[in-house]
UniProtKB/TrEMBL annotation:
This is acetyl-CoA C-acyltransferase. GO terms for molecular function: acetyl-CoA C-acyltransferase activity. GO terms for biological process: fatty acid beta-oxidation. It is found in: Mitochondrion. It comes from Pleuronectes platessa (European plaice). One of its GO terms (cellular component) is mitochondrion. Residues 11-68 form the Thiolase C-terminal domain. Belongs to the thiolase-like superfamily. Thiolase family.
């Protein structure tokens, strides 16, 4: 990139600390299940109400789902 010095440190709150498909090493065909399960666990752990799952489906297509956590 032609830089001679560091550009700074990105804020940690912008990182996906729950990992993506490549970092977790799961088969690509299991993406939907992994995304839904991860969102469900994050909603429970972080006390959220809504989660959004979105994935590409090749050829300019895509899928999305909104998940709502039930109150405990």
């Amino acid at each position: 990139m032609g830089r001679k010095s560091k550009v700074g440190t990105p804020p940690m709150e912008k990182f996906n600390l729950w990992g993506g498909s490549l970092s977790l090493g799961h088969p690509f065909g299991a993406t939907g299940c992994r995304l839904v399960t991860t969102v469900a666990h994050r909603l429970q752990k972080e006390g959220g109400q809504y989660g959004l799952v979105a994935a590409c489906a090749a050829g300019g297509q895509g899928h999305a789902m909104v998940i709502e956590a039930y109150p405990q």
